[in-house]
Amino acid sequence: DAGVTQSPTHLIKTRGQHVTLRCSPISGHKSVSWYQQVLGQGPQFIFQYYEKEERGRGNFPDRFSARQFPNYSSELNVNALLLGDSALYLCASSSGTSANTGELFFGEGSRLTVL
Amino acid sequence: GQSLEQPSEVTAVEGAIVQINCTYQTSGFYGLSWYQQHDGGAPTFLSYNALDGLEETGRFSSFLSRSDSYGYLLLQELQMKDSASYFCAVSSGSARQLTFGSGTQLTVLP
Question: Which residues of chain A have pLDDT under 50?
Fold first, then answer.
């Protein structure tokens, strides 16, 4: 079975541009979460979606937005990129059961560099 | 808000036992998870404690004391492949979202 897949794996943008990151969860998982991981730090929670509805939002500016599609895949959009947005963006999926056990299944991430 | 504290670095030798501590402050606490992340890789789930006590999974064990807002990950019979970053994370809020600590870099020496 395929794990969580993310695309693109690496990308370079310039300040002011926008970016769209994509995530496909594990088959059967209905919840997708997005995390930002800056080098040397732990992942920081951005959004959680379940059944296409936003269930949680972290402390990120409105430049960050996301959505979940009927097939449970998800997109993270970041507008007006800043240098500080350079990070590894991780997508994680969970089933209802695994969410109750603190278990998330992470993808390999999309490494964004903003120049 | 939530905050977690864990040591930034730990070094041990192959075959040894190492304990990584984690203290936390949070509201709406559901449980404490532990994740392993190798350089450039995805975090992978190791264990979860919702109730006080010790959970054992092979060479890894995890402990939680809710009254002390404290937990630890115990790694036994260390192997070189255990060199990685280890994160504790609290599950809280209506979405049971995970808030991660800054991570502990474990180096296993031969």
Answer: none
